[in-house]
Amino acid sequence: MLAGQVPKEWRFKEYRKRTIITLAGYITYLRRIYLEPSGISHAYLDEVLGIRTRKQLAPDAFLWIAKMAADISFRKTAKAFYERTGAKISHWLVMQVIHEEGALILQELYDRAKAKGQPGLTEPLRFSADELYVEYDGIHISLQKPTHEQKNLKQRNRPNQKGRSIELKSAVAYMGKDDKRRRVGVAHFVSDEAPAYFWPLLGARISQEYVLEDIATIYASHDAAGWCKNNQLDIIAPAAEVICQLDAFHVNRAIRKAFGIGKKASYVIGLVYARRMKQLFKVLERTVASAKKGHKRDRYLALRDYLKSNVSLIERGLPHSMGTMEGTNAHVYAARMKIWGGGWSRKGALAMALVRSWAASGKDLIAPKLDNVLFDDVQQLKRQEYEESLLDGTWSAPRTEGAGWEPPQGSIVLCTHMAPEMYGWLYYS
Q1: Strand ranges of the sheet holding 241-246, from the earlier edge strand across to the other edge
Q2: What's the predicted TM-score (pTM) here?
Q3: Between β-strands 241-246 and 217-222, what pairing exists: parallel, antiparallel or unpaired?
Q4: CA atoms of 408 and 412, how far apart (whole Å)
Q5: Which contacts qualify for 298-301: CB closer than 8 Å, 24 or more apart?
Q6: Is 325:172 a contact under the CB 8 Å cutoff?
Q7: Of 49, 251, 291, 422, which sits 20 to 30 A from 201 (CA to CA)?
Q8: pLDDT tens readout for residues 195-224
Q9: CB-facing half-sphere around the CA of 168: CA atoms within 13 A
Q10: Is residue 123 classed exposed, middle or buried when 0-12, 13-18 and 19+ CB atoms within 10 A define those classes?
Q11: What is the β-pairing status of strands 25-35 and 11-22?
Q12: What is the pLDDT of residue 425?
């Protein structure tokens, strides 16, 4: 049936076997190879079924492996896949699946950021909310050690060990919380890009879940780090008012680091939440003045300077329910990526974080796109060059010696009713 759908100008070249891996195990089939006049070859059955060129995994197996590898190690994923399907795959192939899935997610966000505001953009069903809550913070992921490093204590404890971790900028947006204090309409995002690229990508991610034109107020919570404090949330919804708050978790941690756990720490935390800033700084000044020089006084000074530099963020008086970003980082990213003794490449860390953020948002993973479609850009360019050469009268049949499976110049493949495994070896000159 498919043979009747093949364009008339295509000529049959040969039969070839192919084996792919699906959730049902190994599947081997025979397909026809066709050639266009321009020299482009086609496995028409693969293109109709959506099977990619030179890829072992079928789309269903690809998505199953990506989802499983987001929760367990690559080796355990390969073992679980073998137990389910009987097909053996390597942990290296599992890693490549995660890398490719992360690239697909990132590409979709880049495409959406570029197409923002352009006509013809199809919009899925999205939330409409007057208020949007956005929390963001950085998480540091350990990088792999160089393979040339000597494994001894002297080398491990060198003072110039820089670049051993990568900071991923993570964010979560939601429209509020339900009666059980669970966030509603969660949209996770993570990236290692510079802030100039992070905020437009975050806007593209939020636009997948929310109608940005309906947002009147954006409440933001962060730890006052450089890139967090200098946010660009106004580019996400230009008509919305942005109100920022200092993350309650980091305020509490800074106070307990200075005063420990006791009545004095509870009293200072109460002044912060009551936004009685004048009384708060009077207490801190008296504490600093009465403290002796040493580590304890340095901690008091650090706390005073930290609160003074962020007093405007504390006085905002945002909802106290915000400030869960540290827990989000722990459950969404650190639970899989900060395993003791583990290390990641920069590409692998970002890919894994993107896959886990996508899954934590309740979104389906993206199936790989076809790379052997009938009319992609490379094939169109080759056809155009072929047509131009015909018009110039300079076209001649390409020589095919040394191309491996190509027959010699001037030869024709012998098509018979012999067994398929004999095809490709018999030629008629």
Answers
A1: 187-191, 165-174, 131-142, 217-222, 241-246
A2: 0.79
A3: parallel
A4: 9
A5: 299/257, 299/258, 300/258
A6: yes
A7: 251
A8: 999 999 999 999 999 998 899 999 988 888
A9: 30
A10: exposed
A11: antiparallel
A12: 43
User: Measured on CA atoms in the order 385, 386, 387, 393, is the torsion positive or negative?
Assistant: positive
> Which residue has 């003794």 as its token pair?
341
Q: Which residue has the tokens 């699946």?
A: 97
SS3 318: coil
Domains of the chain: which residue ranges? 2-55+369-428, 131-153+162-360
Amino acid making up residue 429: S
50-90 pLDDT, tens digit each: 788 888 898 899 999 999 999 999 999 999 999 999 999 99
Rounded to whole angstroms, the Cα distance separating 82 from 84 reads 5
CB 351 within 8 A of CB 345: no
Radius of gyration over alpha carbons of the chain, in Å? 30
CA distance 258 to 250: 12
What is residue 116's DSSP assignment? T
Residue 28 main-chain phi, psi, to 5 deg: -115, 135
